[in-house]
Amino acid sequence: MLRWALIFLVVALVAGLFGFVGIAGVAAQIAHILFVIFLVLFLVSLVMHLVRGRGL
User: What is the residue range of 28's domain?
Assistant: First the structure.
């Protein structure tokens, strides 16, 4: 998921560099949404790991 967020970020930067404002905006929004989803899933995973503790 983080890989896709980074890919869309690069697409947004390249599109912005070449002046494709509409494409850059959409790609940046997708990258932001994917990054937020990745961050939420990471935090949930971290909390679940801490709650469970060390198991077998």
Answer: 2-52
pTM, entire model = 0.68
Q: What is the largest CA-CA distance in the chain?
A: 54
Closest CA to 2 of 50, 35, 41: 35
What percent of the chain is predicted at pLDDT more than 90?
A: 11
Residues in CB range of 25: below 8 A, 6 or more apart: 12
Q: Is 31 exposed, middle or buried (0-12, 13-18, 19+ CB in 10 A)?
A: buried
Query: Are residues 1 and 34 in contact, defined by beta-carbon separation less than 8 angstroms?
Result: yes
**Number of structural domains found in the chain:** 1
